[in-house]
Amino acid sequence: MILSGHEIRRQVEADAITVSPFDSDHINPNSIDLTLDDTILRYCDPVIDPRVEPEVVKLTVPEDGLLLEPMGFCLGSSREIVGSTEFVPMVHAKSSTARAGLFVHVTADLIDIGSIGTITFQLFSTLPLRVYPGMRIAQVTFWKPMGEITLYSGKYQGSAGPMKSMIFRDRYWDKLHGAADK
């Protein structure tokens, strides 16, 4: 069951959902808008090896905007801290952002219940597009889970700003190469 905008507001006020800072003007019929923070990460390596920690360059988005190049990929984050221990957040691009040629969170839209922090946006621009700090770039919906809840406690918990991939920390790399069996 998806929460309506009115119910999102009630759950924020009841501290069952975290959206901080909270701006009631950002509430939609069944979502709340998220805004872009002023930090962008770009990967430096021409090839990403998931077993190795990737090197990134950190860019500050100036007030007059940052140009995203066509077919370029970078990571940004929400200004807002978002999450819940009672509802499952799902992040989606705003339709106006998508119609301008920017894909936001194409494959990682589901936020685990119990994960509370800033939201890292995977940004893929199909056209030259300028982004600005504070622009409404995405929206988050909240869903009521069914069944017993196990809260998230993984490597991205408490995110502050954009987070690069931490896949290199996953234990299955050791298992693939027998390190766990020694």
UniProtKB/TrEMBL annotation:
The EC number(s) this enzyme carries: 3.5.4.13
Keywords associated with the record: Hydrolase, Nucleotide metabolism
InterPro entries according to UniProt: dCTP_deaminase, dUTPase-like_sf, dUTPase_trimeric
UniProt keyword annotation of Disulfide bond present: no
Pfam families in alphabetical order: DCD (PF22769)
Domain of life assignment: Bacteria
GO molecular function, one term: dCTP deaminase activity
GO biological process, one term: dUTP biosynthetic process
Entry keyword Hydrolase: yes
Protein name as it appears in the record: dCTP deaminase
Organism: Spinactinospora alkalitolerans
